[in-house]
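Final report, results section. Input specification for complex C-07:
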Amino acid sequence: DTAVSQTPKYLVTQMGNDKSIKCEQNLGHDTMYWYKQDSKKFLKIMFSYNNKELIINETVPNRFSPKSPDKAHLNLHINSLELGDSAVYFCASSQRGQETGSPLHFGNGTRLTVT
Amino acid sequence: EDQVTQSPEALRLQEGESSSLNCSYTVSGLRGLFWYRQDPGKGPEFLFTLYSAGEEKEKERLKATLTKKESFLHITAPKPEDSATYLCAVRRGAQKLVFGQGTRLTINP
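Structure output:
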């Protein structure tokens, strides 16, 4: 009965590789997000999709490309991985967008390590 | 620039020892302050939303309060299972949530 699930949980890869992280939510929410949590534990939003439409695109390198095939799925593809991309990436969803104050429901994160 | 600062960074308490965590923010036109709990290896879990100064919310041993410049998360008679990182986030207008760096709380039995 997992609400927001993301795979893989751990991802270790070398610089220059391309990798993807998948996310699915079974809550029936309209809005999904990708957040990055750095080593100091700060959570920063990267992208937000509402009903498959991109609504927030933070200052993120264009090596990061989100894709939402339907409103229950939001994947993150990263090209040409760099050491600085190492972090924990969280997928989240909410009933409505963040502007309404709807609480976020987070997945358990994907720890990406770039060597 | 909107800022959220949480203090202390880490707090160690004995079981039953009550205390408070602080979240101070600089944002004009606050449209919501959120508290989340994060366990190691897990995603943040929503606790409370506060919208206006003077508002309070309670859940079990936790009580969140809000003033115009800060929020407190009071924990009364904590138990070891309350050990976690507590995150505060603010929302202004139609913009994204801005998170603080969290307070790592450890409750010793």
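The longest strand of chain B covers residues 30-38. The two ends of chain B are 41 Å apart (CA to CA). This concludes the modelling results for the funded period.
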